[in-house]
Q: What sequence folds into this?
């Protein structure tokens, strides 16, 4: 009996001696790419948050007002002051918002600002600084098709889910909730499902390169095509939302005729409907739609190019102008009564529609 116990003790000793080495051997068998993925997730996941939107409802019988969940989404920590970035469509229509951090602590959030045409929103929570882990910012200017990307979010309410893929295409266009085009969107095959919206898209160094925003999914689930708003757009919009509560972009100081009406008139360009007084457009002499004493309407100037770049509709005009800074001067090519003219206009701050 004693001999048997000695043998068992010796075998147990050998097991305890070599088991850690076996575990280390298995760990060392990970590919470098796998190690990279694990490291990025461990560093970035504390920056990702879970967002719950609530709406008010009135009880049919008692008339009491109460809150019910409206939807969920993802977001990420922007700074140590408690600003959280997410998609506009995640928070749209909510009467209250809750943000859950990586350690499962939940805070009520205030809506700081929104940019519906960019599908971006900024929230703020009052959380201790040591719980806030801002995500490192990268750049979307030099992305290449085929490079590795990682998406972290909360699909279907499953917190901190990681999916990996590649940049499938660049320069895509998607339509925002305001029917405005969002340009230079990143297409990826990293699985983005409902609930991932607002979460970060990261490069292989763990830097933010986009905000996951939409999927093409006939059945409502991921089908291999997801989209992310490029981080260069995010870096331009978010500071304005924090400072002003809205997106202020460079503009001409004009109101334009709807593209659908321009198309019916056979016009390729942007028709100026009205020139706002004391603006760069007014000082440059641009003309909007006018009415003669006989009640006939005269078409306003038609913008067909900006700095030599053709313009076919308002989205293209806004996209070109947003590449500039407020105070810059641009050269417009216009049609006035079928005559081509070039006019220089100083850009000024214009609040988002």
A:
């Amino acid at each position: 009996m004693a001999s048997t116990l000695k043998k068992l003790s010796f075998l147990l000793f050998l097991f305890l001696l070599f088991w850690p080495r076996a575990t280390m051997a298995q760990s060392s068998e990970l590919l470098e790419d796998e190690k990279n993925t694990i490291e990025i997730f461990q560093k970035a996941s504390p920056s990702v948050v879970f967002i719950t939107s609530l709406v008010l409802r009135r009880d049919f019988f008692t008339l009491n007002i109460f809150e019910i969940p409206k939807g969920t989404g993802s977001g990420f920590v922007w700074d140590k002051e408690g600003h959280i970035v997410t998609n506009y469509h995640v928070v749209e229509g909510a009467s209250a918002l809750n943000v859950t951090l990586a350690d499962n602590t939940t805070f009520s959030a205030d809506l700081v600002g929104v940019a519906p045409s960019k599908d971006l929103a900024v929230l703020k929570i009052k959380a201790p600084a040591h719980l806030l882990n801002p995500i490192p910012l990268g750049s979307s200017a030099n992305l290449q098709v085929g490079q590795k990307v990682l998406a972290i979010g909360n699909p279907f309410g499953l917190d901190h889910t990681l999916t990996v893929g590649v940049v499938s295409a660049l320069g895509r266009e998607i339509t925002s909730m305001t029917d405005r085009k969002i340009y230079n969107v990143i297409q990826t095959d990293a699985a983005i499902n409902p609930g991932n919206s607002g979460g970060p898209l990261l490069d292989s160094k763990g830097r933010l390169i986009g905000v996951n925003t939409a999927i093409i999914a006939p059945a409502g689930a991921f089908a291999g095509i997801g989209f992310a708003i490029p981080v260069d757009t995010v870096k331009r919009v978010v500071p304005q939302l924090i400072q002003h509560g809205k997106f202020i972009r460079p503009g001409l100081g004009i109101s334009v005729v709807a593209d659908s009406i321009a198309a019916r008139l056979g016009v390729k360009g942007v028709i100026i409907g009205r020139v706002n007084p004391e603006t760069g457009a007014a000082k440059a002499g641009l003309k909007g739609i006018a009415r003669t004493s006989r009640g006939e309407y005269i078409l306003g100037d038609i913008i067909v190019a900006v700095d030599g770049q053709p313009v076919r509709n308002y989205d293209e005009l806004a996209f070109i102008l947003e590449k500039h800074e407020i105070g810059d001067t641009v050269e417009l090519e216009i049609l006035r009564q079928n005559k081509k003219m070039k006019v220089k206009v100083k850009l000024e701050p214009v609040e988002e529609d």
Remarks:
- The chain has three domains: 44-131, 148-246, 249-351.
- The radius of gyration is 27 Å.
- The chain has seven helices and 22 strands.
